[in-house]
Design a protein that fits this description.
There is one protein chain. The chain is an alpha+beta fold and 493 residues long. It contains 13 helices and 19 strands. It has 3 domains: 72 residues, 2-Layer Sandwich (Uridine Diphospho-n-acetylenolpyruvylglucosamine Reductase, domain 2); 155 residues, Uridine Diphospho-n-acetylenolpyruvylglucosamine Reductase, domain 3; 195 residues, FAD-linked oxidase, cap domain/gating helix (Vanillyl-alcohol Oxidase, Chain A, domain 3, 3-Layer(aba) Sandwich). It has a 7-stranded antiparallel β-sheet, sandwiched between helices. Strands 5, 6, 7, 8, 9 and 12 form a 6-stranded antiparallel β-sheet that branches. A 4-stranded mixed β-sheet has the order 1-2-4-3, covered by helices on one side. The two termini are 31 Å apart. The structure holds flavin-adenine dinucleotide.
Amino acid sequence: MIYKHDPASIQGFLEDTSNLKTGHTPGVFFPETTDDLTELLKGAPKEHRRFTIAGNGTGTTGARIPLGDYVISMQKLDRIGEPVELSKDKAYITVQAGALLGDIQKKVEQSGWFYPPDPTEKLCFIGSTIANNSSGARSFKYGATRKHISRILVVLPEGDLLDLSRGDCLADELGMFHLSLSIGGNITFQRPQYIMPGTSKHNAGYFSEEGMDLIDLFIGSEGTLGIIAEADLILIPLPTAIISCLVYFRQMDELFLFVSLLKDINNPVTPRAIEFFDKQSLSFLASKYPEVPSNSCGAIFLEQETTVDTEEKDLDTLFERMESCNAMTDESWMALDRDEQGRLREFRHSLPLLVNDWLSKQQESKISSDMAVPDGAFRELFDFYCNSCEEHGFFYIIFGHIGNSHVHLNILPRNREEFIQGKALYREFIAKVLSLGGTISAEHGIGKLKAEYLVEMYHDHGIQEMVMIKKCLDPFLVLNIGNLIPRAYLVTE
Ligand SMILES: Cc1cc2nc3c(=O)[nH]c(=O)nc-3n(C[C@H](O)[C@H](O)[C@H](O)COP(=O)(O)OP(=O)(O)OC[C@H]3O[C@@H](n4cnc5c(N)ncnc54)[C@H](O)[C@@H]3O)c2cc1C
């Protein structure tokens, strides 16, 4: 197994897309087989080693940045199998954790299959998306990654290999899991007793619900309970046609009405994605796309799966909904073929690049939120975000997954004072979101940057329940310490 410790090789592993700058490590291991992984973990207590698992570094929470621990890079475990058909509506594909999501999507689509999870950034590793239960625009229809995983092969922190298919191991009526492991022995632990928020997306802390499947404890546990080495992904038939469109509005009330019509379960048009851009996002985009109307207060991007037979009817329904909400129909952008959809995708993906370009000319980092609330509370949160930022005179943008009542608010500080005020306001947002029954992270996870806020969500006893599970599976505390569970709950140095 390759091991690198020269500064040039290590440098890239001290970064992700958070702005955390305190990473350091003695060196990076590059396992090429599952056996390499088990050997590394088996030897860890004797060698006094701790490990941070590295995916491809697109995470936003500093989760893969080591704070003194060794790094295990997953990049050489990158094999992608062939789709295996189970019925005409279902297939699966076996992949290793270091395979790129974009490569997997391309491969399955070439065979007429579809892997729905799509966390925007295609350069992430599939193992990370499972460890983080990633989600994206299409999660409005398809849910997060966990719904699309039927099996994982996990290397547990003591080096045991756990091959876990959905249905293999369920929590009993007391919420207990029982495992018999060759190295770890017989272990028993209880699922957390906290109630998860009633949001349609949630990615903060260990998953827990009555009768839950053990596979769901590992999915979303951010690498704190084991290394995902391999997984079986569930595939469905590739939709034959898509309608994509970007619809502009003059009034926020009309935009919100449009979203509620799209979300109405009786609505004949049932989009797979409903995304939002606020006025300031549009003004960033207008610097590259002059056709963006200057009198729009915001826009909704949507994607509707359709067929050649239903496309015309779906378009009629969509236009009817747009007109009924007084949308700026003439200025709106319809993309019905692959080329045009590619241009619209590029338009959407330009936003983070334009914002990053603006930020690169500033001294301060952005303050970004990833919170979601139950649908009924969304407008209250949205107005609270806007009013609070206006009161402070902040420069800010709001965009994202409005279908899931989950938008990203980014405060863009122009100086140190605004950064400090923005940080304080972020805490107020957390309190507001929790008071509305929401979650502090809907998709990006907790990592290192948000671990302190998890205590506000689950309180001391909720964190202690996670600590008990962590210590049961990782008694020597070797894996991803400082991620998700605040470091002080596990180590004293
Ligand atoms: C522009 C942009 C847009 C994004 N949009 C979205 C979005 O819409 N939705 C979303 O959910 N996320 C989004 N993200 C965040 C990010 O892409 C995801 O969190 C992704 O899953 C991270 O993958 P990675 O390979 O880069 O992981 P890394 O950042 O390298 O690691 C992330 C975490 O996963 C752990 N990990 C990695 N591999 C394994 C493994 N095999 N076993 C156990 N733990 C492991 C690491 O230890 C770390 O804790 C976005 C990021 C960017 C930059």
